[in-house]
Fold:
Amino acid sequence: MALGPQASTRAPIESGQFDSHFEGEQPPSASRSVGLRRPRSARGWRGPIAACLALVLSGCASQNTPLAGTFDSVSFVRDQYQQRLGADRAVGLEVPFQIDDAVREAIEGRVTVGAAEPVRANQVLEFVFSYLDLQYSLTPTRDAVETFHAGEGNCLSFVNLFVGVAREKRLNPFYVEVRDYNRWSFREGMVVSHGHIVAGMRVDGNLATYDFLPYRAKSYRDFKAIDDVRAAAHYFNNLAAESLLAGNVDQAYELAGIAVDLEPGFDKAVNNLAVSLLRLGRPQEAADLLAESLEFHPESVHLLTNQVRAQQQLGNHDEAGALLGRIESLELANPFFYVYRGELALASGDTETALSYMRRALKQDTELPEVHIGLVKIFLAVGDKDRALHHLERALKLDATHDEARRYAGLLLGPAAQSESR
Structure:
């Protein structure tokens, strides 16, 4: 697995993980053997899309986006699958934005090829949000065809359908990567990485992005247009993250391995691959993988946090402590880092320090269920059941499907309350 600008090969690993890649890399052919279909997980919370947010950007351009209608981008991506994964692994893998005849029939007459670009762009948006009336569902991540038939999807699912439909009608959409720390999850003392993608498109010379994430205020810092292969890596990385959170570690390993081999150096996929290795009981491999990626992403909090866990599992507690200090010195710590530090302090019996860290996490983000669950644990430890119940209620309001929140609901409120939260 190549993790930096100079591509290199690695020995096969027998299980998987997930994330992203560096500009200018030329990925080698993969050596792992993977042949799988995407997992089908249960549908997430269903609710209406509030709006499609269009932002005009400057200085964001895609050098890898072909002219729509003159370039077969689906065939190009399939060719890249074969080159980077090998023919056997490429068989059966989805191209996320590929559409089928049912989608083509649905858009016929609703999006007019001969119309001006702004008209066609509006027609595509009207098709997605008005005609299809797509609903937001956090999981699973779907490709374009699945999103169309299911009538729901998450942010990347919507972008896949948007890109496929718009290209079919000779528009030139592309994927845009944004940095958003909220696209992480915290489970079992490890940080699982998700990417966040929006759609980009030039319309009459103006560059706009279309963000399908509903309701929540955005915390984006950077926008970067990416090519279709990196977008596919995000797709498989999302599936890997969902598999990890569902406890399907072997599936996560395979999917994350696909993402990493499509985009060597993609730090989110490398991170998730390392998490898979840790859960598979292979901390040395995880530590080596994280160390290599940290050479190119030295200030990555999620890589550093999981390296702490790897070193702890290896018994290298001095090294783990040094890494924790390094993270704090960066002054880049996100809420999940403080949750992690709080749980470490709680495990050692230092409830005062644990509470201090959890409050710092809460100050950074009041809308993360993991922060409220951390406070539940601390208040239970000090015997303050009322405050524990308050934060449990907040956690369940934010995510009624959260496994750990449901477990505490059963503990504090009884089995009936646990069932109601499902």
